[in-house]
Amino acid sequence: MDYSNRILCGPMVRISSLPFRLLALEYGADIVFSEELIDYRLMQCVRVENNSLDTVDFVVPGEDRPMLQIHKTREKSRLVVQLGTADGQRALNAARLVENDVAGIDVNMGCPKKFSIQGGMGSALLNHPDKVKQILETLVNNLSIPVSCKIRCLPSLDATLSLVRTIATTGVHAITIHGRTRDERNSDECRETFIQSIVQQCPPNVVIVTNGGSTKISSYSDIQNFRLRCGPAHGVMICQAAMWNPSVFRPSGSLPISDVAKRFLQICLEFDNHLPNIKYVLQRMYGDLDSENQFYEKMLSTETEAQIYTLFDMKNEYEQSPLEERRLWREKLRNQF
Ligand code: FNR
């Protein structure tokens, strides 16, 4: 597994569940990331093979929905699980649980949210290079799969370069750089020139992946142009542009969002995705386009899966899917521990 010359569909909380990842792969993403999973939460999970769906499910005992669901054939060799962590040993314990079911482990060192920073995770790590080293070296030295991390820029190029050089000594395969600082929002300009300089000056043993370009991306060629402007960076990670329309990965052009939504809904039926996640993803797809629109309003007001499939003219597909079989599996999950 190598991130060079690859297009990555990056980690997004509540978006990057199995159906969304499979959709991104179908449309042409080379590698997909899970959402960030906090190490101590993941460690609570039990690994269960779900042979009827060909998935491996990681489930907290007593819960009937997996925290992480991995497809054994359609994504395993291209899936990276992202961890939120503040400690090398804890990260390793969590990573070991999924090590044989994924292609790589990534550490989130960029999240600016209060929850992460208070726990010493995410962007709190950016100012603690010793901690960064401890976490990454523990993972690199003890795992059999590639390790990467995702950072944000520091306020100066020199400080960012210094951090990248420190990280490169740990033996990680790749560093994704989101071209904004911890205090900058997605509406601020992505620091493409920072990333360009880092690509030119970083040690050759590490792959640099650029991230943060979505506000200027609505097609496959925009993805390539963003990568070129940043160095060219060795790899490119796309998040919001994929959330708005996952078919952005198609070299032959993006598809209308209604077609994409229907394909998403079909995959959700295969994997028993539940209503809150289905609605959340669809709202992000339609949000900016249609928030004034009646269709969007109708989507927001749906209260059952049957209603949402009816709204998308997919009532028959919904009724013909193995609803009872899936209900029994959920019951089994809930009761088996
Ligand atoms: C994110 N981002 C994020 N980053 C991360 O490292 N782990 C995560 O779980 C998440 N979750 C998340 C959820 C949602 C809804 C959004 C919009 C973003 C940040 C994301 O990975 C990325 O760094 C930024 O969105 C910038 O890249 P784009 O969107 O310009 O391609």
From TrEMBL:
Its cofactor is FMN. GO terms for molecular function: flavin adenine dinucleotide binding; tRNA binding; tRNA dihydrouridine synthase activity. GO terms for cellular component: cytoplasm. Keywords: Flavoprotein, FMN, Oxidoreductase, tRNA processing. It comes from the Eukaryota. Residues 11-284 form the DUS-like FMN-binding domain. The keyword Oxidoreductase applies. This is DUS-like FMN-binding domain-containing protein. It comes from Rotaria socialis. The lineage of its organism: Eukaryota, Metazoa, Spiralia, Gnathifera, Rotifera.
